[in-house]
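Dear colleagues,

For the upcoming journal club I promised to circulate an example of a predicted protein-ligand complex. I picked one with uracil because it came up in last month's discussion. The inputs are reproduced below in full, followed by the predicted structure.
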Amino acid sequence: MNAVDLIVKKRDGERLTREEIGYMVMGYTDGDIPDYQMSAFLMAIFFSGMDDVETADLTEVMRDSGDVMDLSGIKGIKVDKHSTGGVGDKTTLIVAPLAASCGVPVAKMSGRGLGFTGGTVDKLESIPGFRVSMERDEFIRQVNDTGIAVIGQTGHIAPADKKIYALRDVTGTVENLSLITSSIMSKKLAAGSDAILLDVKCGSGAFMKTEEDAVRLAEMMVRIGNMRGRKTVAAITDMEQPLGRAVGNALEVKEAIDVLKGRGPDDITELSLKLAGMMIYLGGMAEDEAEGGRKAAQALQSGRGLAKFAEFVEMQGGDPAVTEDPGILPRSDVVMELKAERDGYVSAIDAMRIGLASQHTGAGRERKDEAIDLSAGLYLYRKTGDPVKKGDVICSLYGNNVKKVKKALEEAGNAVKISEEKKEPGKLIKRIIT
Ligand code: URA
């Protein structure tokens, strides 16, 4: 076997065997195959595509390039949740304790934010004292004792994907269904859960801009997950405008707590209950998604979800008083306001631009490992479809650097459109793929 033959084979539209895929992926990961050959190989996949068997093989080869978590020490059906990334998406902070309070063990590995989308780990770290790293035994013990633990993803999970993704990023080979599917699913399979819930976002603030593309990606990920013995379902959800009103780490934690208290914004509450219901069903604690949804709603109304969140925070070293006093979260010194320039209706709040604005405040990182300002971000007082009068505050921006917050204010101004006609926002939950 040699790299040139395999590049030519894929370039000419032929199918690759698992051995051939493994030869390329592991050769590259180990440093035996250079960047230029892997780049050509990825471009050949980009144009010639891969069928489901090749995609499943690629997924498994990448999964096996590093550690595969053994969660068999945890009782019950473990369900993982993955969002393809959005702006203001703090659903994991809500869904995980709701599902755990209904008896579904949540053993979750989460990532940090990069670019304009946030990461669960950064959000949790805004709670004073919260730790996201722990030994495997402690992780398993905590899930068995309290039903929930969240840790940061280590570099030992699917290292082949890490290296290949960095190359795709600079060779124009990111937007291919098989490559995206294998990248996401290799990490999910390595994380060791029994079932997988995918939240595939579509719209301006998402990776997939159209519903059709999001459906195609979701269908492929669901097929590959099920082919590999993990019950996998996906929700296609809107990311045309940000989810909820808060964007930024501590601000999102506060909003998640509000949702768990039953007084959060409608959209994030609706989506969280839907996803929690699906998770409860996948975890075998409900006959179907509808019953799962009812159980999630009861957990929210009774306060059991909030109590589970506080218990989880305390177990991981964080101050559980945060649920009673969000004032202990980091606060910003600089606050600026975006005001409506005329009367009308908010007709668009471009999620990507709001994500960029939030990044400019200091809440997001441009480069991996960059420090972020956990207190920074923005809060939307108006959403798409709302009426506004000239001078009304549409959004507050928070940070600790006047220059940065000013830049964010400018970007937020570009994100918000006001028109004379009322425009309803797009449907939040567009489709469920099983
Ligand atoms: N997220 C990933 O982890 N991989 C991709 O290829 C795209 C999004």
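Two points we might discuss: The radius of gyration is 22 Å. The mean pLDDT is 95.

See you all on Thursday,
B. R.
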